[in-house]
Design goal:
Length: 123
Amino acid sequence: MTTTPSGASTVEVIGGTPTAASRPSPRPAREPSTRSGPPADVTPIRASPRSPSGRQRHDEKITVYLSSGELLELERTRLDLRARHGIGIDRGRIVREAIAIALAEYDANGEHSVLVRRLASGH
């Protein structure tokens, strides 16, 4: 976790919080593709099932900016899952689960989904 000059906390969501020994070595740079459009073996997003990837090595990453309160709630939830339910997971796994739930609900309910309602109302 790092803090930006404006004071916002950032969390890099990959497969969790790797230790120095378990961090993957840097991947070689890929050469840019000369093809246009997606590769032939890529499944369209809407055709793929909405389930989180779970505990595995992840090749893609995003950085998510959170307020200190949001980060505190995420950590509180992680600790609560461990204390009450015996589920020892990292924050990245919680975020991936939440994304899978939100996207599945959006796929099922479209314009009536919680995601659309919250984003349209300025949340």
